[in-house]
Amino acid sequence: MNDRDTVVGLAASGRTPYVVGGLKHAAAQGAVTVSVACNRDTVVSRYADIPIEIPTGPEVLTGSTRLKGGTAEKMVCNMLSTASMVRVGKVYGNLMVDVRASNEKLVDRARRIVVEATGTDADTAAEALRAADGHAKTAIVMLLARCTAEEAARRLNLAHGDTRTAVGHP
């Protein structure tokens, strides 16, 4: 663990000792720390660079944090993972484009993604996917930048996997 890592500690109560310990350890290693709790002014928040507090109020069944608290924390995790996917270039617009078509279901999904991202027809998308070895991001860059699969892969590499940037590369 180092300063390129981010550690998220979840504690519905906001005071779970092992979550506090995990955040302390992560911070000592230089990682960015995030806490998620379902109360205000929590202990775990004091140990996080980015505290997220969602005051959900008492559970219908006392002690059953899988209800409101667990649901709220799951929603925050979904938001964090979605933002992470955007940040690391796995999306283009509102499409999850980092798909490698390795089975029939994914081949169909990748073809539909390429069609939507580029405005091309299904046959052209399928051909681009074949040339891109089933990799949707490469096929999208090929079609939008009007280049070969090799050039699209080079562009994606230079753009650190970001499709939008790769399309704009000369």
TrEMBL record:
Record keywords: Carbohydrate metabolism, Lyase
SUPFAM superfamilies membership: SIS domain
GO biological process: amino sugar catabolic process; peptidoglycan turnover
Domain of life: Bacteria
Pfam families, sorted: SIS (PF01380)
Protein name in the entry: SIS domain-containing protein
Domain SIS: start-end pairs: 1-90
Organism, scientific name: Streptomyces violaceusniger
